[in-house]
Design brief:
Layout lengths: L1 H4 L1 H30 L5 H38 L2 H40 L2 E11 L7 E4 L12 E4 L2 E9 L4 E5 L6 E6 L5 E5 L6 E4 L12 E4 L11 E9 L8 E6 L8 E8 L2 E2 L2 E2 L8 H8 L17 H6 L2 E7 L4 E5 L5 E4 L3 E7 L1
Parallel strand pairs: 16-18
Antiparallel strand pairs: 1-2, 1-12, 2-5, 3-4, 3-12, 4-5, 6-7, 6-9, 7-8, 8-11, 9-10, 10-11, 13-14, 15-18, 16-17
């Protein structure tokens, strides 16, 4: 208090007030000039020069302080009480769970969007379902889904994922259905090479691959070519992806190529599927009739020769794998002295008429 009342103290106080006023006036003048002058004015240039000179020192100071900040965090963590650490650990676990859940939702959304895109592109109607069981047997390849007859699912309906066809319904209960996959050894589907438009039978096998059969050696097939459903037979829409060619081979004496096809996906990756209940059979002016999807043994019988009853001479069906698998009728005239006999392979019945020719019809 004595210093404040002395002449020296009063002078120091007045000097401080005067300096403060001067600084305020200078700041006010600088702000006014800065706001009114252009970017090339003296105040702008002075500010830029000061920033240029001060930047290295500012960066150096930041680098020097950073280790101290980190050390402060370490010390804070070490000195935190057990309750705080448990709370932080709980928050971390919760964040990990939320991240995992978010990633699951994201993956599921992407799969469902792919299924929706496929159904829209081919004008398909159907039922989405989840895979609840996968077969672990060597000689069969099936999955079980959580939708059945109460959801409108019936036998022989085709099943897809977002990238294409995976199989066909082979068994239905009220609330579940079993799907036989294309890779099942008993499966055979009429398929088509996307580039050459050549048709054949795509058969499953125990090695997990598909084999495209009845494609003659004069057809140009390259690895990587897409195999799609042929649209023959009334089950699968035309043009749905089935797989990709991974190898092509043949011997000089072979009539058909040995074509190995990688399926579009493996059963281990199936989570959601789409069961096609109906589809537009006319898409862009092209027939969208489905595919033959019975067992490969049935397809082979359709390709093989068909015998008439013992009282009639036998006749052979032409070896056209595509038309045999499609369910189209192959007719062969059979001479007969007693009248016309029509034999159908599906029903096995014989109908006799009074005409002079016999017709053998095979309905695959």
């Amino acid at each position: 208090m004595a210093n404040m009342d002395s002449p020296i103290g009063e002078r120091d106080q007045r000097r401080g007030v005067r300096l403060l006023v001067i600084l305020l006036v200078v700041s006010l003048v600088s702000v006014t000039l800065y706001s009114r002058e252009g970017s090339s004015g003296p105040v702008h240039l002075l500010r830029s020069a000061v920033q240029t000179v001060a930047t290295p020192f500012r960066l150096l100071g930041s680098q020097l302080v950073r280790p101290l900040d980190a050390l402060g965090n370490v010390v804070s963590n070490l000195t935190a009480d057990s309750a705080t650490l448990e709370e932080l650990q709980g928050e971390n676990e919760q964040l990990v769970q939320q991240l995992a859940q978010f990633n699951e939702y994201k993956s599921e959304n992407e799969r469902l969007e792919a299924i929706l895109a496929l159904s829209s592109a081919y004008d398909l109607q159907g039922v989405a379902a989840r895979v609840i069981e996968k077969s672990d047997e060597t000689w069969t390849d099936t999955i079980v889904i959580d939708k059945g007859s109460t959801s409108g699912i019936r036998m022989d309906m085709p099943v897809t994922i977002g990238s294409g066809v995976i199989g066909q319904v082979c068994s239905v209960s009220a609330t579940t259905s079993t799907v036989r996959l294309l890779t099942d050894p008993s499966m055979g589907v009429s398929a088509m090479l996307q580039n050459s438009r050549t048709t054949g039978i795509l058969a499953g096998s125990v090695d997990g691959y598909l084999h495209l059969q009845y494609v003659t050696t004069d057809v140009d097939v390259s690895t990587g070519e897409i195999v799609v459903s042929s649209g023959l037979g009334g089950v699968y829409p035309k043009g749905l992806p089935l797989g990709r060619v991974v190898s092509v081979s043949s011997a000089s004496s072979d009539q058909y190529l040995d074509i190995t096809v990688e399926p579009i996906s493996r059963a281990s990756n199936y989570e959601e599927v789409f069961v096609i209940t109906s589809f537009d059979d006319q898409l862009d002016g092209t027939s969208m009739a489905g595919d033959f999807a019975g067992s490969f043994g049935q397809a082979s019988e359709a390709v093989a020769s068909t015998s008439l009853p013992a009282s009639q001479p036998s006749s052979s069906v032409p070896e056209d794998a595509a038309s045999s698998a499609s369910g189209e009728q192959a007719q062969t005239d059979v001479p007969s002295d007693q009248g016309q006999a029509e034999v159908t392979a599906d029903g096995g019945s014989v109908v006799e008429t009074d005409q002079g020719a016999g017709v053998a019809a095979v309905d695959g």
